[in-house]
Fold this protein.
Amino acid sequence: MQKQTQVFGIRAIIEAINAGETIDKAFLQKGLKGELFTELESLIRKNGINNSYVPVEKLNRLTNKNHQGAVAQMSPIAFHDIEELVLSIVESGKTPLFLLLDQLSDVRNFGAIIRTAECTGVNGIIVQKKGGAPVNGDTIKTSAGAVFKIPICKVDHIKDAVFYMQASGIKVIAATEKTNNTLYDVSFKEPCAIIMGSEDRGINPSTLKVVDEKAKLPLLGDIESLNVSVACGAFLYEAVRQRF
């Protein structure tokens, strides 16, 4: 089982990127200049690596080593290619069930969702390269190790994944309160992908415009929403119930 590691130092991170290591996120010091730092920034952009510019105090909290203004978190897993994954599932004869997470930010929610997805036979989880929760120690722990058992893909934008699913004959269903349909009004029996939104913003409005169907959970109490991992579990088990 691959462990999550941390790489610090500008040249060390450059070498890790060039060696093809999977970097989950890079933290760069605000306002730092220099030829080597510029080279690192260029590599990060070229490879689409999730990154943030932070004060030096944040870097000092991440490591007590000589970080030179750059710290990278290595992913404990290798991410899959979405096209290869979808093609392999379609060709296998299985009825595809995918899960798209639109910038979910809480690592414990992420881990809980991964665990439920593995238990319900989800064929793969697709996340956005930037803005989403990282795969770190908390994710692994909350997923009960399921993160190593289910393929996870990263895309530039969730909308890219929506279009690719639709082009592959897979219906895209958005879990959103912005509809009159409940999840019990929707069919999950055919190939489908379910989108769950972020904890605070839900699904991006531009993404909602291009999905095939929308569905919500009926809420009978006074609280207006469920925790996203709980809501995701309800959707996935409705899919299981319909397919069982």
In short: The mean pLDDT is 92. The radius of gyration is 19 Å. The longest helix spans residues 228-243. The beta strands are 6-8, 23-29, 51-54, 70-74, 97-101, 124-128, 152-155, 171-175, 192-196, 213-215.
